[in-house]
């Protein structure tokens, strides 16, 4: 194999190991962090400073600004976050992503295999999930540096290539060319952390004089600026087909990095001098990796400090870029309002969206019951049509949510605790859907009899209305209980269920009495009993919801703590 092929294979192989290690570390950190992710997400408030902090901490855990940006776009798309709030998260994400470069700047070549061995040993021996995740994080950390070391080794021969040195010289002296190179690298690799790692390793190679860096800090900074521009493409791709505020969030990411690149492009030499002054001293090839990391951090800190007070201006800019008008790709009513497949890899965020979607289904069922018991128990054509339409929407949402759960389970991203909570939420969803479909059956049965020659008496319709009022009351209480309402009295809910059972028995006796007196047609007995049977089944499902709430499996478990 010739030298050129060895270099190419070494670069792509080392890059593959690096990206795999980084992604594995991100996944394991998420699992190890567990509840801490919720606390970080709880900082997503209207306060821009806390928003920046939340973005930085979340990105530090996820080890990817792209992941944080995609998550933020998902929240904005679902209506869980405002545009100004999302912009503050994006600003923080740009700071958090510099953590990777700072870690890479540490020289731990002699300990790479120790990290890999220790990480493997912990994950292989431990039976506890959290400890196993910590071990896998250490193992991935070692792989990350193994990839960096591999790339560094194969780059060394490039320093002696006259053609390559001449080409790099042109990039070093034409900053705009460096920006283009950096942007193209990140567009191809889809990871600014990976391309910055390559840049740090390449800059650590000695030039022809054997002392100074082959590219120097002033030559590396424009490439660094290009890397920051290239990473915005992930956000733009994630926003395609999303609501306008989600697209605006993606463009805010672009505006931040492009405006920063333009500003710093005119300040490359003085900025390089400042970074060299505040960074550790020594031979250039020994310290330039840290200098690049500091330049990356400094760039994002300065731009964040500039944009924090200008967030209202940023909002105006992105609203001009994505103006109001006809919504593109608007979701149909039967499509999920909150679920976002791009967040499958971030379970803490994905489960929040699932919880919101389940509660939306609960609201639909509440509206169905309300339509059924309105109008003194009489089912008019309009209400019947509304109940039927909502039942169809509910079925489609039920299928979509279960598909989303399947994707989360098959992705292997859930911790044991999250998987257990998800099972409880699926149980809640199942009972909510069952109540919805039983409500539709009651509506169909009553509506069918109202159209025929055998109609229910006024007394029967009033009793039916009263039963549905009680059902709506206990159902509403159950939904508040599973939403995390600590003031709900579970014993009182159980008593309400007993009241429904007693009413059911009373309605059966009253119907028989009316038939005996000729007030009701005997042919209505079977459909009337079907209605009562379905009311009883709804009560049983409400009891199931109460039992779930008693086990402290509530939607509150999926939301960030206040």
Write the layout of secondary structure elements.
Layout (H helix, E strand, L loop, with lengths): L2 H31 L1 H7 L6 H15 L2 H13 L5 H14 L1 H7 L7 H14 L3 H27 L6 H12 L1 H15 L2 H12 L12 H15 L1 H8 L4 H22 L2 H11 L5 H24 L3 H11 L25 H26 L8 H31 L4 H36 L6 H25 L7 H28 L7 H26 L12
Helix pairs in contact: 1-8, 3-5, 4-5, 4-13, 4-14, 5-14, 5-16, 5-17, 6-11, 6-16, 7-8, 8-11, 9-10, 9-12, 10-12, 11-12, 11-16, 12-14, 12-15, 12-16, 13-14, 14-16, 14-17, 15-16, 18-19, 18-20, 18-21, 19-20, 20-23, 21-22, 21-23, 22-23
The number of helical runs is: 23
Cα distance spanning the termini: 60 Å
Low-confidence stretches: 327-331
The biggest sheet amounts to: none
- Give the H and E element order: HHHHHHHHHHHHHHHHHHHHHHH
Number-wise, the strands total 0
CA radius of gyration is 31 Å
Strand content: under 5%
């Amino acid at each position: 194999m010739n030298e050129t092929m060895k270099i190419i294979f070494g670069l792509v192989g080392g890059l593959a190991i690096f990206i795999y290690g980084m992604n594995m570390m991100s996944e394991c950190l998420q699992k190890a962090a567990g509840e801490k992710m919720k606390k970080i997400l709880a900082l997503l408030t209207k306060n821009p400073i806390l928003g920046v902090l939340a973005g930085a901490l979340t990105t530090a855990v996820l080890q990817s600004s792209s992941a944080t940006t995609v998550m933020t776009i998902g929240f904005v798309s679902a209506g869980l976050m405002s545009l100004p709030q999302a912009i503050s998260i994006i600003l923080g994400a740009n700071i958090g992503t510099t953590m990777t470069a700072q870690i890479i700047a540490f020289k731990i070549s002699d300990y790479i295999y120790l990290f890999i061995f220790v990480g493997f040993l912990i994950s292989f021996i431990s039976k506890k999930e959290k400890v196993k995740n910590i071990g896998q994080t250490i193992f991935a950390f070692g792989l990350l540096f193994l990839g960096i070391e591999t790339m560094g080794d194969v780059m060394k021969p490039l320093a002696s290539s006259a053609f390559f040195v001449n080409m790099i010289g042109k990039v070093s002296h034409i900053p705009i060319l460096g920006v283009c190179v950096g942007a193209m690298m990140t567009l191809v690799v889809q990871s600014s952390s990976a391309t910055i790692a390559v840049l740090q390793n390449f800059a650590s190679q000695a030039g022809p004089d054997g002392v100074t860096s082959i590219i120097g800090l002033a030559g590396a900074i424009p490439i660094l600026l290009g890397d920051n521009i290239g990473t915005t493409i992930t956000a733009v791709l994630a926003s395609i087909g999303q609501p306008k505020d989600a697209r605006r969030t993606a463009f805010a990411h672009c505006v931040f990095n492009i405006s920063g690149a333009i500003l710093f492009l005119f300040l490359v030499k003085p900025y390089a001098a400042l970074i060299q002054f505040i960074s550790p001293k020594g031979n250039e090839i020994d310290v330039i990796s840290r200098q690049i990391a500091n330049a990356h951090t400094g760039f994002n800190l300065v731009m964040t400090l500039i944009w924090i007070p200008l967030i209202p201006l940023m909002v105006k800019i992105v609203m001009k870029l994505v103006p109001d008008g006809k919504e593109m790709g608007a979701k149909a009513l039967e499509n999920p309002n909150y679920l976002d497949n791009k967040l499958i890899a971030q379970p803490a965020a994905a489960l929040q969206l699932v919880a919101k979607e389940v509660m939306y289904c609960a609201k639909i069922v509440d509206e169905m019951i309300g339509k059924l018991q309105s109008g003194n128990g009489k089912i008019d054509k309009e209400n019947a049509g509304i109940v039927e339409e909502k039942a169809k929407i509910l079925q489609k949402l039920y299928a979509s949510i279960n598909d989303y759960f399947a994707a989360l389970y098959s992705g292997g991203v859930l911790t044991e605790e999250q998987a257990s909570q998800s099972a409880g939420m699926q149980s809640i969803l199942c009972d909510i859907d069952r109540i919805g479909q039983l409500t539709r059956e009651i509506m169909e049965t009553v509506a069918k009899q109202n159209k025929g020659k055998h109609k229910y008496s006024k007394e029967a319709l009033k009793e039916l209305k009263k039963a549905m009022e009680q059902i709506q009351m206990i159902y509403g209480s159950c939904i508040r209980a599973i939403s995390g309402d600590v003031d709900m009295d579970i014993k009182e809910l159980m008593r309400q269920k007993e009241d429904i059972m007693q009413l059911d028995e009373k309605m059966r006796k009253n119907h028989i009495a009316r038939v005996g007196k000729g007030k009701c047609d005997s042919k209505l007995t079977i459909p009337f009993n079907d209605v009562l049977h379905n009311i009883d089944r709804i009560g049983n499902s409400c009891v199931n919801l109460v039992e779930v709430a008693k086990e402290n499996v509530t939607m509150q478990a999926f939301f960030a703590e206040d």
